């Protein structure tokens, strides 16, 4: 089996060891072998990106736009192939995998346009005869560290703006899912117009590769998506040397369901937000806060809906939910279910390990009832197909519990009341608020990010991405 190499300074480079990419739907299926770098190779990539800055800065906005457009075009043209690869290595269903690839392609297309839309300002000075110009310039070398749950979309929405605004890139994907990242890197390389060193792929463990990105003084900014614990370590390392940092971390997202909600709609919103993509989304609805008058009917309806879901191999026909991504993640999900039971929660549905036609990390979607917001299941991020129901008396109690968390990424409400919907949008302590739509669905042209322990730094995606990937320069000229 061919070893897929790292890409450093315009060359495909052998790593210090090899990582096997295993299919979570079928652990007998080895998708490929991928090189792993060490700290020394990571530093070589940083050096190459630093040296490439002047050449890339000399490219026009149109040249950068054309390169990104070519990348997006190829990603979209290969959606079926790349979607199948993604489903094999991460465990999403084939439809979800293809959808994620399409999103990645659209992101590159969007930032191809943004490369041409970067603007500045001319301001009147308070002093006669002086002109004031405000412009945006690339930050420099951008370190990109991405998670395993969206192995092509999240790299796309970090790499595309970094390149669009004239930065150079060192990119480390999650060690668990190197395949989609490598395929994207090959497409970027084959776009054919990026000077050597502008884009670098460095696969390997975060403790070695990511640490170099966070600590090297040649890396001007680091964008990270992953766990809260690791994100804080990255942030501290960057702040210590004065580097710019952007962190997208955990979530414990509430979905409030009021008595006046459309029940079938609320059930679909909850199931989609909580369980699709196997619940492995930072925006997943893991806390279902349900008003007393609709509580029993809602639980019964969600239970019926979960019973209808087909949990199977990610590529199987009719599959609604694939496996958990790894044995470690499965163990974590099961451990949290045990903790919830010990604290008094009732498992209304699912939560058991499943056997299918191939050996994999299959878990029945779990719905917990009789929970309180003080339980660990409602305080800590599980990151799996597990949601818990909290019963409340009224809207004010629901809002209070929704905001009672250290996280603040996404929140949602199901209601027919314009009054409550408007109030929730205003008073919810989350960076993104959804009304009658799932908490785990966002648009690529709109800002993405949260508050509190969920996010730190500038927003991702859309035109707001320029806040992180560019620096502001103010120039004064005596006319």
Report on this structure.
- The chain is α/β, with parallel strands linked by helices.
- It folds into two domains: 3-249 and 454-478, Aldehyde Dehydrogenase, Chain A, domain 1; 253-435, Aldehyde Dehydrogenase, Chain A, domain 2 (3-Layer(aba) Sandwich), CATH 3.40.309.10.
- The chain is built from 14 helices and 25 strands.
- It has helices at 39-57, 61-77, 79-90, 94-117, 153-164, 178-190, 206-215, 228-240, 263-275, 292-308, 327-342, 395-403, 418-427, 466-469, and strands at residues 3-4, 6-8, 11-13, 17-23, 26-36, 121-124, 130-138, 141-145, 168-172, 199-201, 219-225, 244-248, 253-257, 285-291, 346-349, 353-354, 362-363, 366-369, 386-392, 407-408, 410-414, 432-435, 451-452, 455-456, 470-478.
- The strands form seven sheets. The protein has a seven-stranded mixed β-sheet, with helices on both faces. Strands 10-9-8-11-12-24 form a six-stranded mixed β-sheet, sandwiched between helices.
- The radius of gyration is 23 Å and the shape is globular.
- The mean pLDDT is 97.
Total DSSP E strands: 25
Overall structural class, as computed from helix and strand content, comes to alpha/beta
CATH architecture of the largest domain: 3-Layer(aba) Sandwich
Side by side, the strands of the main sheet go 15-18-19-14-13-21-22
Strand content: 15-25%
**According to CATH, what is the class of the largest domain?**
Alpha Beta
Overall outline: globular
Low-confidence stretches: none
Integer-rounded radius of gyration? 23 Å
**CATH fold assignment of the largest domain:** Aldehyde Dehydrogenase, Chain A, domain 1
Largest sheet: 7 strands, mixed
Helix content: 25-40%
For the residues shown, what is the average pLDDT?
Answer: 97
